[in-house]
Give the backbone structure.
Amino acid sequence: MNAELVMIGTELLLGEIVDTNANRLSLALRDIGMDLYYKTTVGDNEQRMIEVLNLALDRSDVVITSGGIGPTVDDITRQAVAQATGRDLIYSKELERQIAARFRKFGRQMADNNKRQAYVPEGATPIENPVGTAPCFLSEDVGGRGCIIVLPGVPLELEHLLEYSVKPILIERMGGIRITRVKVLRTCAVGESNVDRVIGDLMTSSNPTVGLAAHIGQTDVRITTKADTEEEADTAIAGTEATLRERLGVAIYGEGKETVAEVVGQLLKEKDLRLGVVDTLTEGQFVRDMDENGFGDRVISHDPPAEVVGRKSAESLAESAAQETGLGLAMVGPSDEGTTYMAVHGPGKNSLVEKSRNYQDSDHIRRWLTTQGLDWVRRVLLGQLESPADFR
């Protein structure tokens, strides 16, 4: 079975609120192993909502909506769902009674406009909402295309209904939970296109799947698999991970949510080393990263001399910064032509220098240079400064 999300509300399209509900729904579906292929956001316009819901029913077994079931005039999800599933919208005295009872429970009296919430598509299966006043429901398409599960837009209510009502319904329809495993391997300083060139053939696999997510100076490699048992899922992940590690080698710096600074700091701690840094390129971002990851005590920042541009000066500064700590990094420049130099010295090695052009004073470039500097230090500490041949 596969699912589709339809997030409803003009405020979402205008960017007035962040759509956290879609994330909650996606994670819930992943937890039970249901495939999610599409997510659509539509404003509070009945005709457009009907079009989106019809398209969703044409291609998905289960459609889950969020939002538009409140008491106001622009809450028109009920009408749109009734139209899309080919059913009349009927008034339920029982739902009116339930809504009034909830208001009394909250110490309030139900207003007349709340009676709008007692309308549901004929034949719909009610989904009780014990944490809010908006009744939810499941409406089957009269043509047999699938069903629409209608949920509120209030995050607290949606979370409760997902856990205690919707997931059990979906698990029953699926015939049981399928195990989903996701593992993320993190690479840095090699570029998304280079990673793709090395592992592109693995990204055509259907199960496990392999995908990329690019960040500044980093590329995450995501492995996802579905299986009937945890053992099968773990075995599938392990096999693909082994192949990826063989191909990407030292370019992989960590897993999950590990940061490069965290990995570098841990290596420095394990080797009982500190790092001397001369930095005129990142406006202190390198040192801040180390500090924010809990390893600021492993870094000694040195003030650079007035003139630091050039290969020799970078090499000399890295060596000088290493005298006290055994390991030094210099990131200096730019020259008038926009050239920067990065040098690392030690432990037990001569200085290694890299030259780059087209420096720009921007957060993006500073972040990239910070990541590159951290990666150089990491590779030196691992004794693997050189990249694999595929990345040269």
Remarks:
- DSSP finds twelve helices and 17 strands in the chain.
